[in-house]
Amino acid sequence: MTKIKFLATGDIHSDLEFSKKIAKNINMKDMEFVILIGDISEKKDDYGKLLSVFNGKQIFMVPGNHESKNKIKILEEHYNVNLIGNSPLKINEDLAIFGTNYLNIGVHGIPEEEVFENLIENYLAVKDIKFKIHISHIPPAQTRIGEMSPFAPFIGGSHAQRLFLEHFSPDVSLVGHIHESSGLEEIVNKTKVINVGQTFKIFEFDTDTKELRVLG
């Protein structure tokens, strides 16, 4: 029996107390890797403090709308961060992680049609893997998780993400961005969508049963 344990979080927004809370509650030695769903920092020079909690673990990430191209370059070059978008990750024959680096908002935003096309391209790279985890900074539209912001529809879910989940149904989708729905879970078609923004969750994947459990 093989079990793969990992941590997922995001929307830290330079909150050092949040990072300290992770350090206090999580034994990072037990984690195989870390998933970040974006919006890590609001500053130029605090990545070291914010990410030191992960104790040298490999970090797999999709950018949020607060990550500029320069910040992404810094994360990749200095903080063991690997962007999942355009580089889908096959953990083994049973587990894969994929997403997109592109958003429909922010200074580097692109049309939803291009986001959708990129999602399909990355999904096809791992489609034969038994259990697939999709990660996205922005949640799907027309969901409680995606539409709970008081600033909706200006701040809301992505129609590209929604359309993708309806057509391709990965097993799990880890999202963030909407702080008001932090920690909520919802089903879209056959996909379990979990907002890990402004919270942190430990997951354990069992390669025998092909199940992903939320441990806390």
CATH second-level architecture: 4-Layer Sandwich
Give the H and E element order. EHEHEHEEEHEHHEEEEE
Low-confidence segments, given as residue ranges, are none
Instruction: Please describe the biggest sheet, giving its number of strands, its sense, and whether it closes into a barrel.
Output: 6 strands, mixed
CATH C-level: Alpha Beta
Provide the CATH superfamily.
Metallo-dependent phosphatases
How many beta-strand runs? 12
Number of helices: 6
Q: Which band does the percent of strand residues land in?
A: 15-25%
Helix content: 10-25%
Keywords for this entry:
216 residues; alpha/beta; Purple Acid Phosphatase, chain A, domain 2; six-stranded mixed beta sheet; 12 strands; 25% strand; globular
Question: Overview of this structure, please?
Answer:
It contains six helices and twelve strands. The strands form two sheets. The chain has a six-stranded mixed β-sheet. The protein has a six-stranded mixed β-sheet with strand order 5-6-7-8-10-9. Helix content is 24%, strand content 25%. The longest helix has 13 residues, at 112-124. The model has no long low-confidence stretch (mean pLDDT 94). The protein has one domain: Metallo-dependent phosphatases (Purple Acid Phosphatase, chain A, domain 2), CATH 3.60.21. It has helices spanning 16-25, 47-51, 69-78, 112-124, 144-147, 159-168; strands at residues 3-9, 33-36, 59-61, 81-83, 89-90, 95-99, 131-135, 172-175, 185-188, 191-195, 200-206, 211-214. Helix 4 packs parallel to helix 6 (159-168). It is an alpha/beta fold and 216 residues long.
